[in-house]
Specification:
Shape: elongated
Largest sheet: 2 strands, antiparallel
Number of domains: 2
Number of helices: 4
Structural class: alpha+beta
Strand content: 15-25%
Radius of gyration: 24 Å
Order of helices and strands: EEHHHH
Helix content: 55-70%
Distance between the termini: 62 Å
Length: about 110
C-alpha cells in the first residue's frame, strides 16, 4: 500500500515555501507501539515525531556497500585479489592479537 503524497507550505519573509510530504499508515504490533511510545517519551517527543525521525535516520544512513565502495575501488585499483585481501586481514588480526597479549603480560 503506497503512502499518500501531499504538499505542505510554509510562509516566511513574504514567500511561501512548498515541500512535498509523504504520509504513511503503518500496522505495528501492540508490543512495538508500546516500545515506540516509551522511546518517544524518553526523547521528549510524540510518537509520530519519533517515528519520522527514526525513518529519516534509517533512510539516509549509507548502506554497507556504499561505505565499502571506496575501499573496494582502492583494492581493485591496486589489483589485489580477494584471497590476498583475506590473507592481509588475517595477518593483521593475528598481529593485533599478539600485540594485545604482549601488553597484558607487561
Amino acid at each position: 500500500m503506497p503512502g499518500e503524497i501531499g504538499i505542505c507550505g510554509e510562509f516566511s519573509n513574504n514567500v511561501v515555501h512548498f515541500k512535498t510530504v509523504m504520509v504513511l499508515s503503518l500496522s505495528i504490533s501492540s508490543e512495538t507501539e508500546t516500545k515506540l511510545n516509551a522511546k518517544a517519551a524518553a526523547a521528549g517527543v510524540d510518537i509520530a515525531t519519533y517515528a519520522t525521525k527514526s525513518l529519516e535516520r534509517i533512510a539516509t544512513r549509507p548502506t554497507l556497500d556504499e561505505v565499502l565502495a571506496p575501499l573496494r575501488a582502492e583494492f581493485d585499483r591496486r589489483g589485489m585479489t580477494e584471497q590476498e585481501l583475506a590473507e592481509l586481514l588475517e595477518k593483521a588480526k593475528h598481529e593485533a592479537r599478539a600485540e594485545e597479549r604482549s601488553r597484558k603480560i607487561s
